[in-house]
Amino acid sequence: MSGKLDQSLDEILSTRRQTARRGRGRRAPNPGKTNGATAPPPVGGIKKATKLVRASARVPVPTGPAAGNGESKIIVSNLPPDVNETQIKEYFVKSVGPIKRVTLTYGPNGASRGIATIIFSKPGGANQAASELNGLLVDKRPMRARSPPLSVILGIL
Question: pLDDT by residue (tens digit) across 88-139?
């Protein structure tokens, strides 16, 4: 490094360019091939070995509420930004029934995004809330109540 201090920038760059080119060029022939003829690559790129999917690895798709824990989930959106979790819990307990948990989604600035996930203690609570409260006007805005996507229920995402 100290030897380059007395050189100009042009001299340093010209020596770097020459050393960078040394590694390029034609490859040496592969000694494992005898006739030098190369086999054409498979059509569509590299051929990968495929794995068989076992029947037991598939996750069964639920058709209704889980029988084991007895709870149901619903996502409520289009809520006003000034609503908090306590207000949501109080309202849904009065109109539907017992609630296990309410989670309100907040944005990066700390304000509510108007989306709440509600887990009911009873299996039919989410269905009852969706049928009775979907489209209900809250601050002149229709509240949307729907079941979560299947991937959320299964815990895949």
Answer: 999 999 988 899 999 999 889 888 899 999 999 888 888 888 888 888 888 8
Is residue 139 a contact partner of residue 145, using CB atoms and an 8 Å limit?
no
For residue 147, name the pLDDT band (cuts at 50, 70, 90).
Answer: confident
Cα–Cα distances (Å) from 104 to 2, 73, 151, in that order, read: 62, 13, 19
| Longest alpha-carbon distance in the chain | 84
Query: Nearest 5°: phi and psi at 136?
Result: -65, 135
pLDDT value at position 68?
Answer: 52
Sign of CA dihedral 61, 64, 69, 75: positive
DSSP string covering 97-152, please? --EEEEEEEE-TTS-EEEEEEEEESSTTHHHHHHHHHTT-EETTEE-EEEPPPHHH
Under 8 Å between Cβ of 114 and 80: yes
Specify the pTM.
0.52
Tell which residue, 123, 85, 148, 146, has the closest CA to residue 157: 148
